[in-house]
Amino acid sequence: MTNNFDKKPLLDFIVGQLKIDKEGIHGTSHWARVRHHGLTVGKERDADLLVIELFAFLHDSQRENEWRDPLHGTRAADFAASLNSVYFDLNSTQLDQLCYAMTLHSDGHVHTDATIQSCWDADRLDLGRADIYPSEKFLSSEASKHIASAYEWSRHG
Ligand SMILES: [Fe+2]
Q1: What's the rounded Cα separation, in Å, for the pair 73 and 99?
Q2: How many domains does the chain have?
Q3: How far is the centre of ligand 1, averaged over its atoms, from the C-alpha of 30 (Å)?
Q4: Distances in Å between the alpha carbon of 96 and those of 42, 84, 90, 100, 151?
Q5: What separation in Å is there between the alpha carbon of 132 and the centre of ligand 1?
Q6: Are 54 and 40 in contact (CB under 8 A)?
Q7: 105-118, pLDDT tens digit by residue?
Q8: Is the pLDDT at 157 greater than 70, yes or no?
Protein backbone atom coordinates (compact mmCIF):
# COMPACT_ATOMS: atom_id res chain seq x y z
CA MET A 1 0.00 0.00 0.00
CA THR A 2 1.43 3.34 -1.02
CA ASN A 3 1.96 6.14 1.47
CA ASN A 4 1.31 8.77 -1.18
CA PHE A 5 -1.28 11.14 0.33
CA ASP A 6 -1.46 14.82 1.32
CA LYS A 7 0.28 14.89 4.70
CA LYS A 8 0.21 18.59 5.49
CA PRO A 9 -3.40 18.91 6.74
CA LEU A 10 -2.90 15.83 8.92
CA LEU A 11 0.40 17.03 10.37
CA ASP A 12 -0.99 20.52 11.02
CA PHE A 13 -3.91 18.98 12.88
CA ILE A 14 -1.72 16.64 14.94
CA VAL A 15 0.75 19.37 15.89
CA GLY A 16 -2.10 21.77 16.68
CA GLN A 17 -3.53 19.49 19.37
CA LEU A 18 -0.23 18.40 21.00
CA LYS A 19 0.10 18.68 24.77
CA ILE A 20 3.87 18.11 24.66
CA ASP A 21 6.61 20.25 23.13
CA LYS A 22 6.78 19.67 19.38
CA GLU A 23 10.52 20.29 19.56
CA GLY A 24 10.95 17.82 22.42
CA ILE A 25 12.12 14.24 22.71
CA HIS A 26 8.76 12.89 21.46
CA GLY A 27 8.19 15.68 18.94
CA THR A 28 8.38 16.14 15.20
CA SER A 29 12.10 15.41 14.66
CA HIS A 30 11.53 12.06 16.41
CA TRP A 31 8.54 11.41 14.14
CA ALA A 32 10.67 12.18 11.08
CA ARG A 33 13.40 9.75 12.13
CA VAL A 34 10.81 7.07 12.99
CA ARG A 35 9.23 7.62 9.57
CA HIS A 36 12.59 7.26 7.84
CA HIS A 37 13.52 4.10 9.74
CA GLY A 38 10.07 2.60 9.33
CA LEU A 39 9.92 3.17 5.59
CA THR A 40 13.46 1.80 5.16
CA VAL A 41 12.73 -1.39 7.09
CA GLY A 42 9.16 -1.65 5.81
CA LYS A 43 10.21 -1.50 2.15
CA GLU A 44 12.68 -4.31 2.73
CA ARG A 45 10.03 -6.40 4.46
CA ASP A 46 7.20 -5.64 2.03
CA ALA A 47 5.20 -4.09 4.85
CA ASP A 48 2.36 -1.57 4.62
CA LEU A 49 4.10 1.80 4.23
CA LEU A 50 0.98 3.87 4.81
CA VAL A 51 0.36 2.23 8.20
CA ILE A 52 4.04 2.73 9.11
CA GLU A 53 4.05 6.39 8.14
CA LEU A 54 0.87 7.06 10.11
CA PHE A 55 2.40 5.28 13.10
CA ALA A 56 5.36 7.66 12.92
CA PHE A 57 3.12 10.74 12.92
CA LEU A 58 0.59 9.54 15.50
CA HIS A 59 2.15 7.17 18.03
CA ASP A 60 3.33 9.87 20.46
CA SER A 61 0.68 12.44 19.53
CA GLN A 62 -1.45 11.82 22.64
CA ARG A 63 1.29 12.02 25.24
CA GLU A 64 0.45 14.15 28.21
CA ASN A 65 4.05 14.27 29.42
CA GLU A 66 7.54 13.29 28.25
CA TRP A 67 8.10 10.71 31.00
CA ARG A 68 5.64 8.10 32.19
CA ASP A 69 2.39 7.97 30.31
CA PRO A 70 1.48 4.28 29.88
CA LEU A 71 -1.86 4.90 28.16
CA HIS A 72 -0.57 7.26 25.47
CA GLY A 73 -0.54 4.48 22.87
CA THR A 74 -4.14 3.54 23.60
CA ARG A 75 -5.21 7.16 23.31
CA ALA A 76 -3.25 7.44 20.03
CA ALA A 77 -5.19 4.46 18.67
CA ASP A 78 -8.52 6.12 19.51
CA PHE A 79 -7.26 9.36 17.99
CA ALA A 80 -6.19 7.58 14.77
CA ALA A 81 -9.59 5.91 14.46
CA SER A 82 -11.26 9.32 14.74
CA LEU A 83 -9.10 10.70 11.89
CA ASN A 84 -9.66 7.80 9.49
CA SER A 85 -11.74 8.76 6.43
CA VAL A 86 -10.99 12.40 7.24
CA TYR A 87 -7.22 12.85 6.74
CA PHE A 88 -6.41 9.38 5.38
CA ASP A 89 -8.23 6.24 4.31
CA LEU A 90 -7.32 2.95 5.92
CA ASN A 91 -9.28 -0.22 5.44
CA SER A 92 -10.23 -2.18 8.55
CA THR A 93 -7.14 -4.42 8.41
CA GLN A 94 -4.84 -1.42 8.17
CA LEU A 95 -6.60 0.44 10.96
CA ASP A 96 -6.36 -2.65 13.16
CA GLN A 97 -2.62 -2.92 12.47
CA LEU A 98 -2.05 0.76 13.20
CA CYS A 99 -4.10 0.69 16.41
CA TYR A 100 -2.46 -2.51 17.62
CA ALA A 101 1.03 -1.17 16.90
CA MET A 102 0.31 2.08 18.73
CA THR A 103 -1.47 0.56 21.72
CA LEU A 104 1.45 -1.77 22.48
CA HIS A 105 4.39 0.23 21.13
CA SER A 106 6.00 1.02 24.46
CA ASP A 107 5.51 -2.39 26.10
CA GLY A 108 8.61 -4.23 24.80
CA HIS A 109 6.87 -6.74 22.55
CA VAL A 110 8.02 -8.24 19.25
CA HIS A 111 5.64 -9.37 16.49
CA THR A 112 5.72 -11.66 13.45
CA ASP A 113 3.62 -9.24 11.37
CA ALA A 114 6.05 -7.23 9.21
CA THR A 115 4.02 -4.02 9.35
CA ILE A 116 3.57 -4.04 13.13
CA GLN A 117 7.19 -4.98 13.81
CA SER A 118 8.46 -2.34 11.34
CA CYS A 119 6.58 0.29 13.37
CA TRP A 120 8.19 -0.91 16.60
CA ASP A 121 11.61 -1.26 14.93
CA ALA A 122 11.39 2.33 13.75
CA ASP A 123 10.56 3.75 17.18
CA ARG A 124 13.25 1.64 18.90
CA LEU A 125 15.95 2.62 16.39
CA ASP A 126 15.57 6.17 17.70
CA LEU A 127 16.18 5.30 21.37
CA GLY A 128 19.60 6.94 21.35
CA ARG A 129 17.93 10.29 21.99
CA ALA A 130 17.10 8.90 25.46
CA ASP A 131 20.66 7.54 25.94
CA ILE A 132 19.55 3.98 25.17
CA TYR A 133 21.44 1.86 22.62
CA PRO A 134 18.84 -0.14 20.65
CA SER A 135 18.91 -3.89 21.38
CA GLU A 136 18.75 -6.47 18.58
CA LYS A 137 16.54 -8.52 20.87
CA PHE A 138 13.60 -6.24 20.14
CA LEU A 139 14.34 -5.60 16.45
CA SER A 140 13.87 -7.47 13.18
CA SER A 141 17.08 -8.56 11.45
CA GLU A 142 16.40 -5.92 8.76
CA ALA A 143 16.26 -3.21 11.43
CA SER A 144 19.26 -4.50 13.35
CA LYS A 145 21.52 -3.64 10.42
CA HIS A 146 20.76 0.03 11.06
CA ILE A 147 21.41 0.19 14.81
CA ALA A 148 24.80 1.93 14.64
CA SER A 149 23.80 4.56 12.07
CA ALA A 150 20.41 5.19 13.70
CA TYR A 151 22.10 5.62 17.08
CA GLU A 152 24.47 8.22 15.65
CA TRP A 153 21.56 10.07 14.02
CA SER A 154 19.44 10.01 17.17
CA ARG A 155 22.31 11.58 19.14
CA HIS A 156 23.17 14.29 16.64
CA GLY A 157 20.08 14.61 14.44
FE1 LIG B 1 8.19 7.28 19.68
Answers
A1: 8
A2: 1
A3: 7
A4: 17, 12, 9, 6, 30
A5: 13
A6: no
A7: 999 999 999 999 99
A8: no
The answer to whether residue 95 is domain-embedded is: yes
- Judge contact between 59 and 102, C-beta under 8 A: yes
Question: Is the pLDDT assigned to residue 2 strictly greater than 70?
Answer: no
Ligand 1 geometric centre to CA of 139 (Å): 15
Tell whether 2 is covered by a domain.
no
Range of the domain at 63: 8-156
**Which residues are close to ligand 1, an ion, with C-beta < 5 A?**
60, 123
Q: Given a cut of 90, is residue 3 above it in pLDDT? A: no
End-to-end CA, the chain: 29
For residue 149, the domain's CATH number is: 1.10.3210.10
